[in-house]
Amino acid sequence: MNAYEPHVDVMRSHLGRVRGLGVGHSGAEHWWGERASSVVLLPLSTWFVVQMFRLGGASRADVIKWGGKPINATLLIALIITTFYHARLGLQVIVDDYVHGHAYLPMRLLIKLGTFLLGLLGVISVVKLVIAHDSTK
Amino acid sequence: MVELRLPHNSTIGVGKTVLAPEGAKNVRTFRIYRWSPDDDRNPVMDSYEVDVDVIGPMVLDAIIHIKNEIDSTLTFRRSCREGICGSCAMNIDGENTLACLKPIKSIEGDIKIYPLPHMPVVKDLVTNLDGAYAQLRSIQPWMKADTAPPPDKERLQSQKERSKLDGLWECILCFCCTTSCPSYWWNGDRYLGPSVLLAAYRWIADSRDEHTGERLDGLEDTFKLYACRTIMNCTQTCPKGLNPAKAIGHIKELQLARKL
Questions:
Q1: Potential cystine with A34: which of A89, A114, B64, B228 (Cβ 3.0-4.6 Å)?
Q2: Does residue B217 sit at the A interface (CB-CB below 8 Å)?
Q3: pTM of the prediction?
Q4: pLDDT at B260 over 90
């Protein structure tokens, strides 16, 4: 039942297999981007958490007043973009490690599309806050 | 996709037990992974009781004793028995190491011995390392220089330049680190592994080599280099006390230095 069978389905040399399709000419940006974005996220997330505690229970008008200010809107958008950029890079690592075979490519594309759309949703929501803020003046 | 269960033929059974000879005073039990391609059986763990008073101090001494005196079918690689050839790399007491450098006394309880993890087993403790050797070849581990060497002597290097190779040249390519690396288990077909990356950095760091940029180009890949997740098993397990994780970190720094 467990008879040993020599693997004859691959006869390509080991060196040929190792060289494979060659190098992808990328990786440094991913590696550096992961680290740089995590450092940027530290102050941004802290600021966001503090602001959320301050705004706890605030009325919609107060939130619009806060979020419509250019400085707050800028920091919010920076936080959203950095968060989803970082999520994209991090999720890619998880897929690289744990997903193999046919599911690999669809998962990679899904992560790129998913994080892009979620980030876009966040940015548009902030823009909506700013517009609401301006129209109440 | 994700395989949650090991294949059926990898389930390890219980093998035979060979008791110590009568009158043995200091008996230790060696539990050794056994698998042969010659029959249809699953791997088993054989137990050998050995009087460690009559053998040398290292695990390799015990294995050689078992092969010579108890069971000649036990198969393993060994050569120098002093930690310089890298042949007797195996998983002892849960850690990849060289059997010739691992004192029996440093292990408590039964001494469990397995082949290097995640490599195809040829027989018993012998694994097929062809893939890892090909990966080593792919990084071209030899001096590449276009400047002709001096006609009457070797290429010179300052003491400072030479000191950069310390901690790199000592690697004996036993692949204890590579086979201990989860990232290599997951992506061993694309990730070069700590041992080969340490070898690559040994040539990147060599002042006499003139192809540093090309070497870095050859590693500029999401998997070949960057599949290192700094898990650090490599550094923890290295029987020569080297630090492959640090060498990989240096390669990443250099990749960045030429981009920023």
A1: A89
A2: yes
A3: 0.92
A4: no
